[in-house]
């Protein structure tokens, strides 16, 4: 297994933040990154996924064959799809069991789950097609689309990274201007995470991981970039801390360009997040020695991000139910957080133990 590194560290940090933010009302929620940024851990997770894509595709000096890259990325998309189906089924079973054994029928209406129980034939088709998604279980469908489109990103990147950036930005802006989103079915609506909007920050991560092109340009001027963007970082922190968000009636058309919209990942969220990336880049390497155990914990979560995310999603739902039934408070919230930290760490350890065992068996 690879050792701790900056990408895995921040990805693990994002996973723990997602777990906390997915238990609404928990006292520790007020200390997570979304209280200090216009965006939240979702931007961090998608950006780092794009950054990690570079290691699959290869650098401009050492590129993997395009056929191998395509099969590997489509295989990853299929793996993520299977994970989405699994955790969705687990979430539905948990809601049904809690409703039955705790005599809480209202739980069947949580997170867009009621159509599964009221219209099971159509809704199960929608679950398989990813056109019906449960609340708090709707980010992996975005990843399935992004990974399916990743071979196209890799192909455009090989032609020119600047061409990829231009195409991605054009699709993003066209989506913001038109307001187009993928439809849901059988319940009429749209995706919570619009892939046409969120692909831009994914592509930004992919391009910034490159040694030349936009990534190389940013690295050569990172000192001056940090100075230039610091006021925007501070402005975003102040806005997030005070809960400021422009109302739709106070901004000109096209409104999605000016709103802090999460579904379309509006420019204010993306740009302030990229400014934060510029400021914190390299911070991991300067962390003090006493922080090493925490750093290693986050890196372990990040190395096994899909498995830990699945566990994190199911745990957060259990935390929501516990808070609904038994209430909150500092002691109960601390217990929920502690259980989450332990089980997420254990799931990462088990994933790596299984990988080591399989590697050892193959050498015998």
Characteristics of this structure?
single chain; 364 residues; mainly alpha; globular; 14 helices; 68% helix; two-stranded antiparallel ribbon
Question: Care to describe what's here?
Answer:
This protein has 364 residues and is mainly α. The protein has one domain (6-359). It is built from 14 helices and two strands; from the N terminus they run αααααααββααααααα. A two-stranded antiparallel sheet has the order 1-2. α6 (140-159) packs across α8.
**Strand count, sense and closure of the main sheet?**
2 strands, antiparallel
Q: For the residues shown, what is the average pLDDT? A: 92
Poorly predicted tracts of residues = none
- Structural class from helices and strands? mainly alpha
What is the CA-CA span between the terminal residues? 19 Å
Would you report the number of β strands? Answer: 2
Helix content: 55-70%
Strand content: under 5%
Q: In order across it, which strands form the biggest sheet? A: 1-2
Total helical segments: 14
- Any idea what the shape is? globular
């Amino acid at each position: 297994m690879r050792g701790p590194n900056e990408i895995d560290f921040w990805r693990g940090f994002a996973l723990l933040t997602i777990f906390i933010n997915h238990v609404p009302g928990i006292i520790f929620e007020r200390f997570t990154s979304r209280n200090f940024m216009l965006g939240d851990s979702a931007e961090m997770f998608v950006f780092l996924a794009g950054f990690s894509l570079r290691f699959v595709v290869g650098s401009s000096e050492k590129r993997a064959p395009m056929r191998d890259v395509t099969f590997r990325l489509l295989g990853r998309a299929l793996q993520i799809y299977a994970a989405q189906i699994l955790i969705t089924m687990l979430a539905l079973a948990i809601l049904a069991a809690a409703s039955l054994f705790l005599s809480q029928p209202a739980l069947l209406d949580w997170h867009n789950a009621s159509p599964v129980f009221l219209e099971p034939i159509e809704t199960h088709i929608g679950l398989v097609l990813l056109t019906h998604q449960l609340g708090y279980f709707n980010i992996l469908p975005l990843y399935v689309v992004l990974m399916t489109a990743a071979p196209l990103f890799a192909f455009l990147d090989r032609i020119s990274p600047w061409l990829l950036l231009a195409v991605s930005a054009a699709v993003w802006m066209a989506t913001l201007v038109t307001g187009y989103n993928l439809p849901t079915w059988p319940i009429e609506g749209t995706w919570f995470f619009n892939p046409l909007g969120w692909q831009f920050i994914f592509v930004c991560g992919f391009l910034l991981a490159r040694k030349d092109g936009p990534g190389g340009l940013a690295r050569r001027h990172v000192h001056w970039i940090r100075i230039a963007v610091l006021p925007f970082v501070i402005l975003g922190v102040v806005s997030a801390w005070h809960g400021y968000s422009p109302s739709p009636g106070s901004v000109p058309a096209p409104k999605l360009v000016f709103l802090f919209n999460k579904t379309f990942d509006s420019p204010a969220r993306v740009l302030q997040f990229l400014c934060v990336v510029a400021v914190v880049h390299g911070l991991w390497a300067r962390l003090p020695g006493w922080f090493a155990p925490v750093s290693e914990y986050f890196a372990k979560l990040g190395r096994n991000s899909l498995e830990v995310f699945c566990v994190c999603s199911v745990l957060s739902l259990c935390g929501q139910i516990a808070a609904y039934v038994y209430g909150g408070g500092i002691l109960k919230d601390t217990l929920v957080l502690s259980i989450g930290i332990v089980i997420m760490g254990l799931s990462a350890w088990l994933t790596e133990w299984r990988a080591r065992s399989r590697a050892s068996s193959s050498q015998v």
